[in-house]
Amino acid sequence: MLVGTSLGGYWASVIGKKYGIPAVLINPTIQPQQSLKKHIGIEFENFKDGQLNKMPEDAPASYPDAPDVGMFLILLDLGDDVLDPKQTESWFTVNPVVIFEGGSHRFEHMTEALPEINKFINHVLTTI
């Protein structure tokens, strides 16, 4: 099983869809070619080697949209101030989407989400 948040949620959806792996997507990015535009030209540190880099102008366009169907559980905080949770909810029309009031992009409801995650895992285990 894969679990990812934000851009990690995007990658969990892409890898999960490609290889048939169940995934829990937490406040996932669904259209990184849009959401990453604001980071073009901003300097960031590579945590592996300490080098400073900038996102190239053409990098966001290289990302396709997230798949909208797969073995996914989507967890959203309505208070996400980075990504639009309503847009994300409408993106995933087939998969279960659990929405929590308030919170933030950091996802403030992990404790409350654990029963939903366990239910998803049990469902996946009985269908594989």
Commentary on this structure:
Helix content is 33%, strand content 19%. The protein contains four helices and six strands. β1 (2-5), α1 and β2 form a beta-alpha-beta unit. The longest helix has 18 residues, at 110-127. It is globular. The chain starts with a strand and ends with a helix. The model has no long low-confidence stretch (mean pLDDT 94).
The SSE string, one letter per element, is EHEHEEEHEH
Radius of gyration: 15 Å
| Tally of alpha and pi helices | 4
Structure classification: alpha/beta
Distance between the termini: 12 Å
Please indicate the percent range of residues in DSSP E strands (runs of 2 or more): 15-25%
- Molecular shape: globular
* Average pLDDT taken over every residue: 94
**Strand sequence of the main sheet, in spatial order?**
1-2-5-6
Percent range of helical residues: 25-40%
What is the number of E strands? Answer: 6
User: What summary fits the major beta sheet?
Assistant: 4 strands, parallel
Question: Which residues form runs of ≥5 with pLDDT under 50?
Answer: none
Summarize the structure.
With 128 residues, the chain is α/β, with parallel strands linked by helices.
What is the topology?
Blueprint: E1 2-5, H1 7-19, E2 23-26, H2 32-35, E3 43-45, E4 52-54, E5 72-77, H3 85-91, E6 97-100, H4 110-127
Parallel strand pairs: 1-2, 2-5, 5-6
Antiparallel strand pairs: 3-4
Keyword list:
single chain; 128 residues; alpha/beta; four-stranded parallel beta sheet; two-stranded antiparallel sheet; 4 helices; 33% helix; globular
